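Troubleshooting log. The previous structure file for this entry was overwritten by mistake, so regenerating from the original sequence record. Sequence copied from the archived sheet and checked twice against the printout by T.R.
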Amino acid sequence: MKITLNSKILAIATAVIIVTIAAVILTSAKLSTRDYEEALESRSTAIAKSLSIQLERLLQLGLHIDDIVGFEEQCNEVVQSYPGIDLAAVLDRDGKVVFHSGKSTPSLKKQFLKSLVEGPGDPVEHKTDGLTWHYASTPAYDQHKKHIASVVVAFPAHLITNKITHTLWIDLLVGLLVLLTGLAVLYLALTRFVTSPLSNLLSTVVNLRKVPLDLSRRASIQTSDELGQLGSAFNQLMDNLQHTTVSKAELQDTLLELQRLSSALTEEKEQAEIILQSIGDAVISVDNRTSVRFLNQAAEHLCDWTFKAAEGLPLQSIFNLFDARNSTPLPDPFEPAFFKNKSISNPVEAVLQRRDGTTIAVDYTASPIHNADGQINGGVLTLRDVSKERGLAQRLSWQATHDALTGLVNRRELISRLEKASKPDTKDLCQHVLCFMDLDRFKVVNDTAGHAAGDRLLAALSATLAETVRGTDTLARVGGDEFALLLKDCPPRQAERIADAMLNTVECFEFEHKDQIFKLGVSIGLAVIDGSSTGEEILAMADTACYMAKEQGRNRVYVYHTGNSEADERRLQPKPVE
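Regenerated output below.
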């Protein structure tokens, strides 16, 4: 069911008017009832006082109340003279009716009558024989000011009810007349000022929808209120639309050009994706919030993510970058790229942690992408797997600093570490000591079992010695059967004890070859590292001490005292083996 705007407004207005009229009628009835009741009570009280004054005049003449004659006629005159007053009576002190008007006299109980006599005289209500009466009483006094009797005047409550009913009917008729008149006036006003202008505007819109290219239609404006402003706004919109609308042919040409450009862009996009999929480097495209927009196949393999699963996710949720040297997390590569607005490559050797937790050595470059306005709207990250290159570089670096046979640090790396240890450091007050070790009776092994067996012996002995040194020390092979041990943060006395332990280790070492057991000895020279000697000089001092150990009988430890020169070499004091 379609309800018109007029009907809706009239329904709302009807409800409002009815509520208003009802409130007015109820308020008026309540006030009228109260006023009418107060008026009747006031009249009853006044009549009672008037009769009381007349009765007191008779009493003050010395007459007894029972001797008074004719007062009933005065009561009847009161009832007849005042419409609505149906009872006038005189009661003695005991509540006995002495005089009464004789009209509509209710059957009252003596207890109630006595309460009227003894009461304060205010109007009261009392229900008798199914009817409610309003009573007003006034006392009467004799010449001695003694309360002899009371005058009672009453009227029935149905007088008030009848008055209310009459008033309500009149108010309802007036309210109905006001309602009908108001609705009629409102309907005419709505039709003239609201629905008629809206219908004209709606008709214009409907006709425009039927003939959309006819932009000359305008709405009729009859008022300057809100509806008139709406019509003016519609006409202004049509004016602007008419000025900006192009012809159908021009529109079709524009659409064809857009389709051609869209096809060209689609073709270029497909070619770019084919190129990106064919290259070996991983390519990841992100938006300006570093959310993934594209992954090529190499990136999917490198990160262990499919493009479908990674699309829209934050970049750092599909992989993490760490510093290869200390495993500390690296920041998002696009943070410096977007901040500096240029391509940024990894500043340190980086490793990428894949989805499965494995790591791959990578080099990467993050580059910002700009829109037509020059604003950054995304970026491209290229990643290259450099595990082979970095592994080869690490192997070459290891080979350059280690002995191939024993896996120990070589002479070159030892010299480098000696140079670092010999540099004075105000924060490092500890001493460092170098042990130079030359194996005894190793030539017997080479001559008896061959060089291959000698190499196996050196490898086995190196592994045994490596197990005895501290984690901070450096064990190196500096010659054929010559070894060196750099003891960091080690006082000379402790170094001697360590050297003594090395002697025992070598003495206990046995090498078996073809059921033949070979045992070795070792001569050790110690040199305390100071800040005035180079690495080569420190190694030479320890070598000299080792030579003196051999000269003094082998298989012992000698300490080179700092300050001795080659000329004073014979003054080297041997330290007893502890």
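The chain has 15 helices and 19 strands. Archived copy saved in two places this time.
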